[in-house]
Amino acid sequence: MSDTIHVPACHLYNAAGNKILWLDGGNSHQELPFDQLKVIGRRLARRCSFAQEMTAVLFRSPGCLRALFWNPDGTEESICGNAIRCAAHFISRDSAPIDNVAIETPHGTYLGRKLAADRGSVAIPAHTIRIRTEKIDGDLLVNIGTPHRIRVVAEEWPDDGVKDAVACSESSEPVNFNLVRKVGPFHFRARIFERGVGETLSCGTGAAAIVSALADLGANSVDGEHPYLVEFASGEQLTVTYNQSLDQIEISGSVELLVASSIPHLSPT
Question: From the candidates 10, 80, 86, 168, which is the catalytic residue?
Answer without folding.
Answer: 80
